Here is the input.
Amino acid sequence: MKLFNLNDLSKDELKKLFLRQAIDNIKVSGIVNPILNDIKLGGLDSVIKYAKKFDALETDDILVSKIEIDNSLKSISKSSKNALELAYQNIYKFHEKEIPKSFSIETMPGVKCSREFRAIENVGLYIPGGTAVLPSTVLMLGIPAKIAGCKRVVLCSPVGKVISNEVLYAANLCGISEIYKVGGAQAVGLMSYGTAKIEKVDKIFGPGNQYVTCAKSIISIDPDGCAIDMPAGPSEVLVIADETANARFIASDLLSQAEHGVDSQVILLTTSDVLAANVSKEVEEQSDKLERNSFITESLKSSFILKVNSLDDAFELSNKYAPEHLILNINNAESYSEKVINAGSVFVGEFSPESVGDYASGTNHSLPTYGYAKSYSGVSVDSFMKAITFQKLSKDGLKNIADTVITLAEVEKLDAHANAVKVRLENEN
Amino acid sequence: MKLFNLNDLSKDELKKLFLRQAIDNIKVSGIVNPILNDIKLGGLDSVIKYAKKFDALETDDILVSKIEIDNSLKSISKSSKNALELAYQNIYKFHEKEIPKSFSIETMPGVKCSREFRAIENVGLYIPGGTAVLPSTVLMLGIPAKIAGCKRVVLCSPVGKVISNEVLYAANLCGISEIYKVGGAQAVGLMSYGTAKIEKVDKIFGPGNQYVTCAKSIISIDPDGCAIDMPAGPSEVLVIADETANARFIASDLLSQAEHGVDSQVILLTTSDVLAANVSKEVEEQSDKLERNSFITESLKSSFILKVNSLDDAFELSNKYAPEHLILNINNAESYSEKVINAGSVFVGEFSPESVGDYASGTNHSLPTYGYAKSYSGVSVDSFMKAITFQKLSKDGLKNIADTVITLAEVEKLDAHANAVKVRLENEN
Here is the structure.
């Protein structure tokens, strides 16, 4: 891995070092836009056309059948089943604590205001497929949807012919049975616009390749489309480590992120020159033995190790970068957690590798990438709900607030607004 | 107003009746895109160029000076001051209850997970201007930003030369002093991209005309841009009323929404034929006396009264429409609140006109329009914060979870993920 020292870098060089790969939305949207427009007009036929072209769909029936589901539930291996069930339990326990609380307050005598939460009724989950099989993502999206109480949960995945036992088992744990063998931009089009027979959803969740994330962006600002969980870019990890850290552990964390794809970025900020050198060596040694070595070689090209002068330096740079995953491999790591301002999920101490959060610690792995952690949260139960506010005024309450409302309406030159208060109190004066 | 009976309408006619005006994003984005691109490259000079062209800016200094602020605080009228202060108090009291709660949980022995909230550091507020002056919107955005603890709050408003005393007074109450005399798409460009000297923000809030909302959409999916509060369309109200309701009150509510702009939509669903006729008559009588009668005449064209067979009909139609504002003018209105699934803010009972929520009851008036209430909430304190999750595993915790993580990583063919656990437990076995 490339090694740098903060003291050797100019401001511009430092900025350049932390730059993420540019996302070329224009090129991708040139491909995605026609697909979405086609589905808007052509409905299911268009969806099937693209699923056959891009997802290797081999049937005209995109809905996974009850028989397929039942077979999967029977044939899944014992070890996969146990692992999915333990992950389910941990994720459920954590997310249950996220349920937002309603409240009610009398802001002034006779003016009662409250805030209540409702599940979003129709949601769509996108589960990437292709070479990989991602049952963990089914749990990460399906569990909060279930806890929120969404009435209808649709799942789309580019599966061609046979959908994996693990994906179907995870979906079943979450109570999801409306599953379509459709992926890519066509899955986003299907869920956001609906077809004559398949109702559109109100919000789409889930990661995906550049076509999926581009399609999600487009439909999120299309008045005919729907909401999305968050914008996305390539996955990334930033590790902050001091001289007490174990170089092998850190190398394994950097590599577990680097194996995600060629565009992943992994960064180590450390106060120790010795550690920097050791991690670099360890990364080389460990990566030789890994199956996805070709991805790793590519993604390490945009990755680096930076020697900093202090942990304060490290946290400042990390907050500016706003990493999706942040690993704190430093002595007494927990005491630093309040220094974290911008990050998706944080892994505290040497025995908390990123992979525990990816699968089973309980936190969600759908996290803001590409610096979006500055303003977005990871997926949570609230992502599947929305708040409604209520106000109920008694006649006295209205009298108490009348002058204020009338004065402000007059300042804003909205006399019908003032009038709505006046007509209600007319017979009073 | 146009009157219909549910029993006379076909499914298609009903659907057409509730259709909102189409939003022509393509035409508007043709104007907005070049402005945004110009600002991305040209910075402050481009912002000033457009502010002079569109906002009647008369100076090269877009920042409102300390002297201007001090003068406003001195010269504001007593009544405006009192009204803003009471509104501030109510809104503050309500929003303080919204502060999201952190939590911590041990999902299994040795696996400690927590969720903490952080304020978004840099936020931008857009306050429409032109003919109207909107200090209420300053409070609705500035108060939750203050409660969240945002480090920097920027405000933009198209004010030309002199900014209103009320806007500056409201901004001062919220602790906002970085105020720019810039509006429209150029304000969105300024805040989302920043300039050499003005730092970009992480999220933009606030209503605006079609150029502002289009610009917000565009920057929300531009990787160089930033997050936004929510997409937007024209403002709207839906009233559900039974035979006990007062026709004058309802007419005044419909008109207070209709005066917002020519594209506002107002709808009454009622179980009473008599009420339907009386409201229609009242709307005509009252509107004659209102100053913004020309707006009202226009917006009533796309508005209607619909006689329904039951309150259940009404709630079903309302939830399908997902109104920004919902008024329940029915006997024992409070008992119906759980029937509301999709709405921005709800006004319960005959003494709760929409205008109290627009100004001073305490709830927020920045609400999801155009059916977005199906998936979006109104602006709240959480809109100005994001959540970060943490996990800290002890060595025993990692041992407890190891099999699960390794099994799932192997299912997903990510062996580096499994390896990050294995290296930490290597000397254990």
Summary: Chain A has three domains: 2-22+233-362, 25-230, 394-428. Chain A has 15 helices and 14 strands. The CA atoms of residues 254 and 266 of chain A lie 6 Å apart. The first strand of chain A starts at residue 2 and ends at 5.
